[in-house]
């Protein structure tokens, strides 16, 4: 079968040099595994980290990709919940399922956790014509959700749902700031906050602001401006006039990190919450601690989530309340071009790649 393979790292981000479409062996199901085709798969930033070989050296040769949707073509003898022909999507958090963290519902904190398609291998990831996962890492795609939408949602709706619902305990009527609303997680963050009937202020680059509003954001602000936070503050005062609530942000959703972190803290109300799942601009944020202790702010970390949380998000997609924002679709042969586009940030939502004929 065909797969997108690399056999060396590209610390210079020259993906065309290392990414090749190769023939690799088709998987055979282990007792607890589901074998399924790739009808659509999606890019994530961990694919970039893998090709760079940092922050961890991934196994080589490597097939990347953590999000994929397709049809079941074989199951192991112990698999009970899936059959040939089922439409399925991956859940990329590989956990032991028996430790204290896993059995307490915190599988994302399992000490043995691996992110499938990033830390796994050799040659075990989404970007192949056929792939395999344990039964516990596969979910059925709801009616009304396409393969493309499911692949685009897999890791990102899981991450966004866990951030807002699982960690930050979002409640109706809050004023929510979604940083980077044009990203995969940001585009779902906007919609989840609107599902909870919140006032949503999204930030993005200028070319993405209207698209954020199309997804449901009530306001959209250019976060590349030095004084972007002043515009957000002015919006919260406008909201306060019409609702009678205190100006400020109740909950801010962050994955940008270093460059924007402290300004988010300044915007939060007393008792407000910042939840973070990443730091695409850097990890070394300068923080004025007075905003945290004096206002009683909650700063929460978040990574991945549970399979149940992913399925909650997929359920609402099936109900038509949340949709995947798909920027573009590439072939396996165009994998280098697709990853370069993601690195440059010139996209809105998710970028997909597919094998020929999918």
From TrEMBL:
Q: Does the keyword Hydrolase apply?
A: no
**What's in the keyword line of the UniProt record?**
NADP
Every copy of the Enoyl reductase (ER) domain together lies at 17-353
A Pfam entry, by short name:
ADH_zinc_N
Give yes or no: UniProt keyword NADP. yes
User: SMART domains annotated for this entry?
Assistant: PKS_ER
**Single Gene Ontology MF annotation:** oxidoreductase activity
Q: Which PANTHER family would you find in this protein's record?
A: QUINONE OXIDOREDUCTASE
Q: Could you tell me what this protein is called?
A: Zinc-binding dehydrogenase
